[in-house]
Amino acid sequence: MSPLVITALVVVGIALLVAIVFINQQMESRKLEKARQKADLLDRYRRCSEISETLPGQFISPALKLLLSRFELSLGERLLALDKSNAQIGERVTELRRLVGQGEAIQVRNAPQIILTEAKAKDVRFLFEALHAQITRFAQEGQLPRNDAQRWVKEIRHLLTLLHIEFFGNLGQQALQQGQPRQARLAFERGVQYLQKQPELGRYQAQLQQMEQQLNRANALVLESSAPVEQEPNELTDGLKALDEDDIWRKKNLYDD
Questions:
Q1: Assign residue 231 a region: left if phi > 0, alpha if psi is -120 to 50, beta otherwise?
Q2: Residue 69 CA to chain centroid, in angstroms?
Q3: What is the average pLDDT value for the chain, to the nearest integer?
Q4: Distance (Å) of CA 50 to CA 106, 194, 207, 213
Q5: What is the predicted pLDDT for the residue at 43?
Q6: What is the pLDDT of residue 23?
Q7: Burial of 184 by CB count in 10 Å (0-12 exposed, 13-18 middle, 19+ buried)?
Q8: CA-CA distance, 85 to 78, in Å (whole number)?
Q9: Which among 136, 167, 165 is positioned nearest to 149, based on CA atoms?
Q10: Axis crossing angle, helix 118-140 with helix 3-54, rounded to the nearest 10
Q11: For residue 144, how far is the Cα from the chain centroid?
């Protein structure tokens, strides 16, 4: 065998090895990309399901339930395209198609939940933040019209405001029931301050007035509980009264001069 033939065979062998390595890398890259896509879709699919199932009933309308069902359906169909043998997702996709087909006649089975602790309020807020992220993602992918996305983002801000109103109101009412007017006053004060900072204050005028009334009631109870008992000696009260009378006398002499 001539040196030329040997050289040619070596070159061809090297070329084949390079080609095999390249093809393997491409296949591995596609495999990794498919796995990444599947993991991302599965995470979003589960998040949408969690939001839809766990959001308190007072914050979820048929329109929002429908939106979440559409999100979950879209993600489920894309998952099935990557994993056709997944029977669990296949069954859920069939159910979601039925639900989405109902339009806004879709039933909302989420039970209302009492928002009475900061931990609970944070849990619900995290659900709203997760919903906001999904709306943004679907809009970026072109699967949700920009106008619809903007409308839903505005609705989420409204729901967050309602969450704060309910939390501060419940916290204040609980404190009143437990005979803690100072804590109640603090809760109502926070509620009033939060509402006063809202850009669409007119939309929450009724809630603001109610919160202010509750704050006034709590203030009255605080003053009542702080008032000294009549006919009982109180050295601090007597001392303050004496200082006040002395101050009046000094002012009177000053003006008389």
A1: left
A2: 18
A3: 84
A4: 17, 28, 30, 37
A5: 94
A6: 74
A7: buried
A8: 13
A9: 136
A10: 130
A11: 20
Helix H, strand E, coil C: the string for the chain is: CCHHHHHHHHHHHHHHHHHHHHHHHHHHHHHHHHHHHHHHHHHHHHHHHHHHHHCCHHHCCHHHHHHHHHHHHHHHHHHHHHCCCCHHHHHHHHHHHHHHHCHHHCCCCCCCCCCCCHHHHHHHHHHHHHHHHHHHHHHHCCCCCHHHHHHHHHHHHHHHHHHHHHHHHHHHHHHHHCCCHHHHHHHHHHHHHHHHCCCCHHHHHHHHHHHHHHHHHHHHHHHHHHCCCCCCCCHHHHHHHHHHHHHHHHHHHHHHC
* Calpha distance 245→240 (Å, rounded): 9
- CB burial of 64-97 (b: ≥16 within 10 Å; e: otherwise) equals bbbbbbbbbbbbbeebbeeeeebeebbebbeebe
Please report which confidence band the pLDDT of residue 254 belongs to, taking 50, 70 and 90 as the band edges: very low
CA distance between the termini of the chain: 132
pLDDT in tens, 96-121: 999 999 998 999 999 999 999 999 99
Are 176 and 219 in contact by the 8 Å Cβ rule? The answer is no
Per-residue pLDDT of 133-170, as tens digits, reads 999 999 999 999 999 999 999 999 999 999 999 999 99
CA distance 42 to 59: 25
CA 58 to chain centre: 14
> Which two three-digit tokens encode residue 112?
């209302």
